[in-house]
Amino acid sequence: xxxxxxxxxxxxxxxPEMRRISDILRAETVGGVLLVIAAAVALAWANSPWGDGxxxxxxxxxxxxxxxxxxxxxxxxxxxxxxxxxxxxGLELKREFVAGDLRDPAKAALPVAAAVxxxxxxxxxxxxxxxxxxxxxLSGWAIPTATDIAFALAVLAIINTHLPAALRTFLLTLAxxxxxxxIAIIALFYTDSLAxxxxxxxxxxxxxxxxLVQRRVRSWWLLLPxxxxxxxxxxxxxxxxxxxxxxxxxxxxxxxxxxxxGPGLAEHFEHVFRxxxxxxxxxxxxxxxxGVSLSGAGGLGTxxxxxxxxxxxxxxxxxxxxxxxxxxxxxxxxxRARLAEGLSWWDVLGLALLAGIxxxxxxxxxxxAFGAGSERDEHVKIGVLTGSLLAALLATVVLRSRNRHxxxxxxxxxxxxxxxxxxxxxxxxxxx
Length: 432
Hints:
The chain has 432 residues and is mainly α. It is built from 18 helices and 4 strands.
C-alpha cells in the first residue's frame, strides 16, 4: 500500500486556471496603479490652496430628486460606480464556488480560514481600542477587516517583486472570500432603515435579468435597463446599493450550456466589466473618498490619538498579519499539510502584511458607519491611509528580502517550458 499523499498549501493551480488568473491580476494591477494615483491626486488637491474646489466638486449634486437620486458626485461614486466593482466581485465569487478552488472543501479551507482570521482579529483589535470610546465609535468595527486586492497588486508592481503565481493566486482567492464577507457585513450591519416594498419590487427586474442570462442572452439593451432598475429599487429600500451589483453577478451562469470554444457568460461579462471596474469605477471612488484635509481633521497630532484611528491602523497592520498568518498556521497544524516546495513561512508573513492594505471597502464602510463628510469619517480616511501605507511598507521589506528566491523560482519555470508553452511543473502536477 502506498503511503498517503501529504497535501501542500499554497500549491499551483492547473495551467488553464493560472492563465485565467494571470489575466485578472494584470487588469487589477493596472487598476491598482490608477487607484494609487487617484488617491494621491485627491489628497494633494484637498490639502492645496485650491482645496475648496475639490470639496465643491465632491458635493456637486446630480440626478432626479423624485427618485431620491439627487446625489452628490461622491455619493454617485460610492453607490453607483462601486456597484460595478461589486458586480465583478459577484461574478468572481460565483465562479470560484461553482468552478474554482472554493468548490473543493480541501482547497477552500485555507483561503476561507485566512480570510476569516484576517477579518476577526482586526475587528477584535478595533473593538478593544474603542470599547469605551464615546460617540458611537464601535460602529466602525468592520473598517479594518477589508483587503484591497487592487491596491495590494499595485504595491507588488511598484516594488517589482517576482512573487510566484501560486502566492498571487492565494492572495486573489483570499480577497474574493474577503469581498464575500464584506458584502455580508454591509448588508447585515450597515442598513439603518429598511423599506420592504422597494426591496420586494427589486426582485422583479432581478428575476427578469436572471431569466435572460440563464437563457444566455447577452443583449445590453435588454440587460442594462433591468440592472439599473434593480439598483434603483435596492437603493430606495435602504440596503446599500452596491448589494444590487452582487446579486446581479450571482445571477449570471458560470458553466456553458453546451461544451465548446469561447468563454462562458460569466467569463464574458468579466472581460467586459473588469476593465471598467478596475480602470474607472474604483479609481474614481478613490478620488472622491481619499481627499481628506489633514489640517481640517484637527491636525495629525490630535487625529492620530483618536481611538478610531488607533484601532484602524493597528487592526490593518497587526490584526491582518496575525489573523491571516495565524489561520494559515492553524490549517497547516490541524490538517498536517505542508507548504508547497520552495515556499517558507516568511512568504506567508509577507502576504499577511500585504492583506493589511485596506482601502476601497474600508473607506466605504467608514462612510456607512459615521456618515460621509463627518469628522469621524475624516479620521477614518487618515487611519485607513496610514494603516495601508504602513502595511505596504512592511510587506515590501519582507517580500523584497525574498525576491532573489522568487526570481529563481520563476526562472526555473521559464527554463522548463516546452514548445507547447506550458511549464513542466504544471504538466507534472496534472499527471499527479
